[in-house]
Amino acid sequence: MGHLASTLEAAKLLLDRHHRLSITVLIIKRSSDTLVSSFVNSIAKSDRIQFIELPNVDEGSLGFGFIDKQIPHVKEAVFKLTARPDLSLAGFVLDMFCTSIMDVAKEFGVPSYIFFTSGASFFGFMLYMQLIHDEQEVDPTQFKDSDGELPTIREAKGIMVNTFMELESYALNSLGDANSNIPPIYPVGPILSLEGDSHSHNVGPDGSKIMEWLDDQPPSSVVFLCFGSMGGFEMNQAKEIACALEQSGHRFLWSLRRPPPKGKIELSADYQNFQEILPEGFLDRTAGIGKVIGWAPQVAILAHAAIGGFVSHCGWNSILESIWFGVPIATWPMYAEQQFNAFLMVTELGLGVEIKMDYRRESEIIVSAQDIERGIRCVMEHDSEIRKRVKEMSENSKKALKDDGLHTFV
User: Fold this and answer.
1) Which family does the record claim for this protein (predicted)?
2) Buried-exposed string 180-218: b where 16+ CB fall within 10 A, e elsewhere
């Protein structure tokens, strides 16, 4: 879902800059994923952008294997498009997980570009994994459970990365200097979906209540805890977080959700009754300074003046949003490349503080209340060097989107 949102924002930018361009978005989703369909249906319709939901396929395999099963449907959809006399196919822009579809683009005689929805540092890591696989005959999948495949990124015509020079100058310079055999790299970020960043946008009835509560809080006084569309906690971990929040004494807004079933890639769900999983009396004792919620309109919350810190799973969209709004982040990665992102923010860039950088959801490790409280106190510290650096990077992120701020790498 996070990939789709930022990809759609990239599509809008292309349409704004090229008035003869039209875009068709092919939607690949699991049958159980209703969020994607509702998201697509909520988008204002336009004659220059259309969505085609591809048929569901057997979900026995995930990752690249799941994408490969959609190749015949991609071919059929593109064939129907090219049959229209009023359209000329210009090329494919592919998600970072859809590199196998480059073969389809070749069949139609058009170039492929990759839209890499994470950062340049992680992109460099993926290139290194491919290098030791292709040239040193090392199997990187031996380091972690995997389906044994690597994306063939080098065959793309170019790679758009959702980052900007001031944030990842070292990684971008390294890619340009040391990898002459890779396609051109275009740092096009930060590309964000900011439609919910003010009260004037529809955040729904639950979201409106959240924003009203934030309106009553002092500036930069609230720590916001949110862990993405697949981030959730069982009772034991939730109680540790609750204890940390209560002991810290800081105002808080906590998006507490149920984790996906073990072994399944599904979205988190809301709890029906917070009393059942939180320490006895916690909600009553913290009623004056805290609010526990389910789903959260994250962008609108981060944009609010009351937010002073963000405890996050370190998804790349969340990192870019926290930087955009100048909110320092406390890192609690859970899956995918989030550990890498957390290391980048804390150790490499000094834009975040650590709660538990090596945490993974499937490890079943319980992060202690002491570690969580320490992270909350650090991220909420006023006039800290990290807060100052985040504010500076926030200004840089906005400058990067000006017409003279876009960078091209070859």
Assistant:
1) Belongs to the UDP-glycosyltransferase family.
2) eebbebbbbbbbbbbebbebeeebeeebeebbebbeebe
Rounded CA separation 93/246 (Å): 47
Residues 169, 266, single domain; the answer is no
CB-CB neighbours of 36 under 10 Å = 18
Looking at the structure, tell me whether residues 213 and 277 fall in a common domain.
yes
Mean pLDDT, residues 148-166: 83
Answer for the pair 157, 110: CB distance below 8 angstroms, yes or no: no
What is residue 45's DSSP assignment?
A: P
Distance CA 335, CA 358 (A): 10
* 217 and 257 assigned to the same domain: yes
Identify the three-state secondary structure at position 174: helix
Other Cβ atoms less than 10 A from the Cβ of 315: the count is 25
- pLDDT at 200 (0 to 100): 40
More confident residue, 392 or 68: 392
d(Cα 400, Cα 186) in Å, to the nearest integer? Answer: 13
pLDDT digits (tens, 9 = 90+) for 255-301: 999 987 776 666 778 888 999 999 999 999 999 999 999 999 999 99
What beta strand segments (E) does 54-198 contain? 92-95, 112-116, 158-161, 185-187
CB of 204 closer than 8 Å to CB of 297: yes
DSSP structural state of residue 241: H
Residue scoring higher pLDDT (350 or 57):
350
Catalytic residue among 33, 47, 68, 95: 95
Domain span including residue 33: 2-187
What's the pTM?
A: 0.89
pLDDT digits (tens, 9 = 90+) for 15-36: 998 889 999 999 988 776 677 7
The segment with the largest mean pLDDT, out of 68-82, 249-263, 361-375, is 68-82
Residues 213 and 96 grouped into a single domain: no
- For residue 382, the domain's CATH number is 3.40.50.2000
- 177 annotated active-site: no
